[in-house]
Specification:
The protein is α+β, with helices and mostly antiparallel strands. The protein has helices at 12-15, 41-51, 122-129, 132-142, 152-156, 165-205; strands at residues 7-11, 16-20, 36-39, 55-56, 63-64, 78-82, 91-93, 105-107, 111-116, 159-163. It has a single domain, classed as DNA methylase specificity domains (Adenine-n6-DNA-methyltransferase TaqI, Chain A, domain 2), CATH 3.90.220.20. The protein is built from six helices and ten strands, in the order E-H-E-E-H-E-E-E-E-E-E-H-H-H-E-H. A hairpin with an 8-residue loop joins strand 6 (78-82) and strand 7.
Amino acid sequence: MHMSNTRKRLKLSDVADIRTGFTFREKIEELPVGNAHIVQIKDVRHIRDITQSQQIYTNQLPLIDWKGKAHLLIDSECVLLPCRGEYIKAHYFAGNQKESKALPLIVSSQFLILTSNQHVLPEYLCWYLNQPIVQYELRQIGQGSKIPMLSVSMISKYEVEVPSLDIQQHIVALHRTWEQEKRLTQQLIKNREQMMQGIFQQLLKGQ
């Protein structure tokens, strides 16, 4: 299969709409039942540790009782880029795994929300922002205060590499396969560890 390898460097603001998440004035109260999901950095870090994936779904996230404006809610694919603190791994919000039970998402101000246009697949943009050299450069951009911070204006001019859509799709497919391999490896290690613990206990009891 022939794939076009034309690529160019474009400013982030030319390939995505960038805005900040919602600033809560009071402590966020997570509930067993609610009308919207909430995403904070603690949530995406926990999900990444478990799934070994940059992808998140609304049904993986806590619920809240949202009484704010409807236009602040997210219900379509986007990239969530943490903008406060040391953790700046991008996450790809893929919507809900169960469409019939889909509730909208409210993104906290701990993130910048990047909604890509027709030139860039959101999953590719997320992958690109997580590349080591890009992560390093974003950290450099965010330095200058006690707590590293990224703002819309700071990253708007950052240039990203934009290959053709077929190349983007190929990269996304390969990355999904790699994430699946990491999950399987993690599970194998966990199973092996449990087995070894059992052997150790048997040896101790046999003394």
